[in-house]
Amino acid sequence: MSGFPRFLRLSRSASERLWRRGSAEKCVSLCFRANFLRLGLAHQNSTGGSRCYSSCKTVRIGCASGFWGDTTTSAPLLIYSGKLDFLVFDYLSEITMSLLTAARTKMPNLGYAPDFVQVALAPYINDIHRKGIRVVSNAGGVNPLACAEAIQEVIKKAGLELKVAVVTGDDLMPIRSLLSEVKMADGGSRQPLPKSLHSMNAYLG
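== Acyclic terpene utilisation N-terminal domain-containing protein ==
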């Protein structure tokens, strides 16, 4: 997953459930706040107009990294002082994906950011659990399943029972034979894929 979704979105069914909870006169709202970022929810009513909702709940989101190699001091600061609902780690860029691909080529159980598991999570896993913080990250790189297994090992050693979810679908190498050329983003021209192609990933979200 070589890029973090830029927007948090509610599904249509979720927004409809929120709408049904409020009367015609009352305002139902959901607002995510992360520093100065505010994402609101609007609903299209039966008359064709739209209602904008004010904030009724605050969800606190803290981002502890913006790239692989970013400071390791942010995670404990946010965990112990942030009063967070979600702790987010962003690790990926195009060059990071290529480095992780090279690592997985040498060792099939690699291909993710190991410091996410051992430095960012392992020392604080008990406090993350105790505070009810949910962690979201793209540190799985080109091997998210291996990253999940490493996280589950950390959880097991801590004697905890936590859920670990994995998002896949960005790896296009299994359909490499179906793709003969690519359209260049700068000018719209098409060029054949290089023969020495080692990885191919799509942005999700």
